[in-house]
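cron nightly-structures :: item 1 of 1
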Amino acid sequence: MRHTLYSKSSHKWQSILDCQNMIIKLPLRVISKKNSRRNFGRVSLPSKAYMNFQSLAGEYLIPLRQNYITKPFILHVFYHIKGNYHSDLDNAVTSVLDCLQHYQIISDDDLCIEIHARKENGSKDWLCEIELVEI
């Protein structure tokens, strides 16, 4: 299956072909969906910060819908954290999977059979590099 890498550079979409994997670069701070919820009695909603992240991520993810993954896959995530901020890696991975499912890049996050995640503090800018390897 042929996948396409999209990255936003100078407000223009660029594509690079990759024959085996889907590679996505989100130059965004990943906001935890789990730890930033607003509770109203029995109703729990994602925070405005998470909803903003999800909306911004859509600019990068919507063009990838034609590569919809419906088979088991392996997820690789490399999260570059700007400056001295601290971020919980497992919550960032969960937020990424939720966005991928929301924008129909993957049909179900339950299809993820293996996760490799890494974070690096002290980066110049925020960046979340995602690689999906379809099995």
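cron nightly-structures :: done
The chain has two helices and eight strands.
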